[in-house]
TrEMBL record:
Molecular function terms, GO-annotated: Hsp70 protein binding
InterPro entries: SACS/Nov_dom, Sacsin_chaperone_reg
Stretches assigned to the Sacsin/Nov domain: 122-308
Protein name: Sacsin/Nov domain-containing protein
Any Pfam family the entry gives: SACS
Amino acid sequence: MRKFRKIFHPKTTISTTNKNENVHTPNSPETTLNNRTFTKQSSPSINNHLYTESPVTSTNPTQSNSISSGDDSLPSVQYAKMRIISSPVFQLRDIISALLTSIPPSCDLISTFITYGQSLGASTIHGYLVDRCYDTQTLINDDFSSYQGVALCITYDALLSEQQWEDVFGIHESTSIISKTASSFFHLTDFLCILSGSRVVYYDPNERMTNDERAYVSIFDLENDDIEIFQDQFSPLDYFLLKSKTFYNGTLIRLPLRKTSTTQITTHILTLDDIKQQILRYFHLNESFIELLLMQTNINLIEFDYTKDFQIFTKFLSIDKHSLTTIHDAQSTTQLIHMTLSKQTDDINTSNVTRWLLSIYNDYNENDKHEIQLKLLLPLMPLSSSSETYMSSNISRNYQSIQITSSRILYYCIIPSLNSLCQDNLCIQLRQIKFPQAYALFLKNLSRLINPTTTLNLSIDLIWQLMPDIDEYQRLLNENQNYSLQEQYLKIIYNLIPDIWSEIGKQELFYSVTDGWGYVAIEDMIINNVKAGPIQDVLTFVFSEANAPIVILPPHVINGLCKYSNKHYLQVMTPFHASELLAKNSSIFSHLTYEQKLSLLTYIILNDPDPGLVLELQLLPLANNQFITFQGKQASTIYIVDHNLDFLKLFQEKNYDKFLNANIDKKLFDILSSEIFQVCVEFFQFHMYRSNYYGRYGSTTQPTDNSRRSISASPSPYDRGNNE
């Protein structure tokens, strides 16, 4: 630390027999400037800690008087090797008191701990509510005895670097004061202890580190300094230094709780139970998890225990975060995160599981000339019981939220914050941070997580839900015209929808159901827009058999791609496509069941009643549950009876191959038997006419005009004339 002043104290024994013996040469002026002696009045319990290497007295009268007098009855003085930071010219406690007035006392304390963990690069934070007291005989200053009681200890599994000592804990050469975030601790305590590696630092805003000048920081090196003289001061660290005694492989912040309300910093007093309730409330809310996932991405485990002796621990809160899977892209990374919150309240243990999707988009900002990260967070399964009212009044959010669909809220943050962003228009700001591009890549990565080869219990419907529906937003805008704030947020997404769909169209995020294709670009895929059911299934099968890249999409996705995609052509499946494919791949019919063939005929005829689409297809349903080609090479006569199965009972089953199957969809039956359809067939040389014969199958009564008609498939007018 650049501000540390290394002060090596002379090792001495106070002599009362002859104070003028063994006088050493005084220090040079340069040495005097850089090496100063800081003293502490002795007490009976530390008399055995005097240095005895060589008896030394100072030739400087002022210094000699400060060390010893001629009166042997006065207490002797002990020397310790200690480095300090002198206080600024102003009173540090006044600065801290001013800072405390602008910082909320509760939630910011906890969020500061978590923020420090992220800054240190820690993955684990472990807190201890320590309900015990330590001896007070050998302290740096007797006034510190009140800090030997109950305390909150926070540990991190990361060591502080030299730069982090300055950046995180605010020892800045320019000001020499504790940072504003560090001042959050002083709502709780008047005395800080920081242990990292072999270094121990004490912070006293009341500036009582030495007796001869105001100093607010003292630093000790456990590996090189003799700290026995301050044994009680270091005793609260024994549990963490148990193995080494000189080194802790991590970082510890110890905050002894304030005992009296008459301190110069603040009069606020908290108990261990108060802190416990603050912690439980903080982690009871979705907002705390959002903050943790967006801002503290390194941290995977948070635990808090209560202990009286560091032998028996009662865990009252645990948060375990782990990534189930991660998808890496050139510009983005998307994770599926599983978090478990376990806590003990009123001796009742509960556990709550949450799931989140976190996407990090990396980009370079040309205006601010540095790299940025846009983080997107989507709750899949948030906390089941949480009230959002408590946090909103106690913590400032470092993130924003956006209603991406009618049922989904997306949270996002930009790191670091950009000065060049538009502050007046959120829609422009979202375009500046490239939100549409980041969101499209997030959907692309999500499609990889949901593809059929994974077992993450994620439905493809999730992707469709996250793709904005322009018609839905228009409806929501119409419904919320009287709610200005909600309408404002709806308009933001409504105005961004073209940008989002344009970016979606650039990504290969649609997975083909045809084996071997995988993800396809939108200009290559054939979209199956048929409603889910038997017809969709058979069309997918038919096109897949022909090795066509079939993609099944809902209507609002097709609508968005058609309206806003920068691609000039989208291949949406039509009856014409199906007819053309079946005509070129007639072998497919041999693999189809009766129901599948009937579904194909229904799809083609009901969506495009053009007989030309079925002339060459083996899709004419007969009463014997077989199919023949509508227009065969040889003429044949197929009779049409009313849509009533009772008519068929008049004929033998062996003759059912001469009748149109009446056991089909009535609308389909009516189209096939309609005069309009027959006229169209005649136009295509597919002749349908009414038979002049009756009683042909043994009927003893003359049928009515509508009781029996025939469909004759004839390749030439000559055959038709003979029949007539």
